[in-house]
Amino acid sequence: MVIKSYVVVHNIAKRHNVGTLARSATAFGVTELILVGRRDFNAFGSHGSTSHLPFRHFHSLLDARLFIKERDCDICGVEIADGALPVNEHPFKKSTAFLLGNEGTGLSAKECEICDFFVYIPQYGSGTASLNVTVAASIVLHHFGGNRF
C-alpha cells in the first residue's frame, strides 16, 4: 500500500507562504498541494518547487474533503485542540491530508469540522504559542515522512 500525503491550503493570510509551503511539500514527498478558495498565490520562496508538485484547486472545503475522502485519506488538522496528539506520538497509518490554520487565528470552526483528528507541535520555549505556517508544515510533514520511509 502506498501511503500519500497532501497539504490543504485554505484561508492562509500571507499568499507568499504558499510558495514556501510548496517548497517544504516537495522536500517531504507530498503528493499534491490542494488550494481551496483563492487560486492565486505568490511563488516567492518556492525555489522552483512549484514545477515539481501538482496543484489542485477547489472552490469549497466540502469539495476538497470529498476529493480527499475518495482517496481514502484521513484529514489531519494541525492545531492545539482538545484531543490533539503531539505530532511525534501520532501513529500515521494511512494516506493523510494536512490542514493547517491561518497564521493569526488558527483553524476555523468550519475547517475543524472536516478534520478526522488533530495533532499539535510540542513547544518547549515560553516566548510564543505559535509557529509560522510554513515552519509548522515542515515539522509535521517531516514526522509523517518518518512513518512512511
TrEMBL record:
Keywords, comma-separated and alphabetical: Methyltransferase, Transferase
Presence of the UniProt keyword Membrane in the record: no
UniProt superkingdom: Eukaryota
Positions of the tRNA/rRNA methyltransferase SpoU type domain: 6-142
One Pfam assignment: SpoU_methylase
SUPFAM superfamilies: alpha/beta knot
Keyword Methyltransferase tagged: yes
Gene Ontology molecular function terms on file: RNA binding; RNA methyltransferase activity
GO BP annotation list: methylation; RNA processing
Ranges that cross the membrane: none
Annotated InterPro entries: Alpha/beta_knot_MTases (IPR029028), rRNA_Methyltransferase (IPR051259), SpoU_MeTrfase (IPR001537), tRNA_m1G_MTases_N (IPR029026)
Family matches, as PANTHER family: OBP33PEP LIKE PROTEIN, RRNA METHYLTRANSFERASE 3
Protein name, per record: Uncharacterized protein MANES_03G188400
